[in-house]
Fold this sequence. Notes:
- By secondary structure, the protein is of the alpha+beta class.
- The chain has a single domain (2-183), classed as Beta Complex (Beta-clip-like).
- It has helices at residues 2-7, 10-13, 93-98, 168-174, 180-183, and strands at 17-18, 21-22, 35-36, 38-43, 46-51, 60-63, 67-69, 77-80, 83-86, 106-107, 113-116, 119-122, 133-134, 147-148, 159-160.
- The protein is built from five helices and 15 strands.
- The longest helix has 7 residues, at 168-174.
- It is globular, with a radius of gyration of 16 Å.
- The strands form six sheets. The protein has a three-stranded antiparallel sheet, with no helix packed on it. Strands 6-12-11 form a three-stranded antiparallel sheet, with no helix packed on it. Strands 7-9-8 form a three-stranded antiparallel sheet.
- A hairpin with a 2-residue loop joins strand 4 and strand 5.
- Bound molecules: zinc ion.
- Zinc ion is lined by residues 109, 149, 151, 153, 156-157.
- The site of zinc ion has 6 residues, from loops.
Amino acid sequence: MTELASALTEEQSTLVLLGPFAEKESLPGHGAMGEIPVGVLRSGGEYRLIACESLRAGAPLFWVDGETTDVPSRYSVQVDEGVHLDLPEGVGQEEIMDVYFWRFMNHSCSPNTRIVGRQVLAVTDIGAGEEITFHYATTEFALAEPFDCRCGSQNCAGRIAGFSAASDVERARLRPWLARHLLTSRL
Ligand SMILES: [Zn+2]
């Protein structure tokens, strides 16, 4: 953890960091259990998922686990056509941190991960302490709660409402990161 400690600012290092997490055995086909190299940092009243160590592009980070539903919510992740993973109702804070920490993964228009099936993979090298982000329109056909993005990246699309609402130019830009159900979706 020394690499992470030196990467965090003095202010950040006084904040609560949960993680790295232990991999859960509940999901089939995940191979050997190990440590998940991400943590949740609470900063300025907001939670963000950060890398606890430096990660290489292409590295598998963790799996998104949850209840499947056909109704998207603010936090759900779309994993197939009409299929969304969400947190179970009434889930406690401890369990959120143990199993559903993925809900703290924020959007960026220049993301450093993508979601393949239910697995989150790095698409760039990620430094220790760097926030883990994905582009919501690479998984979501239509966002339950569209929002105005202020990620500050030069590619920022502004309004983020899902793949179906993205411009042709934006769709072409997102193509390398797109979930399979969006590659084959009919608009
Ligand atoms: Zn943006």
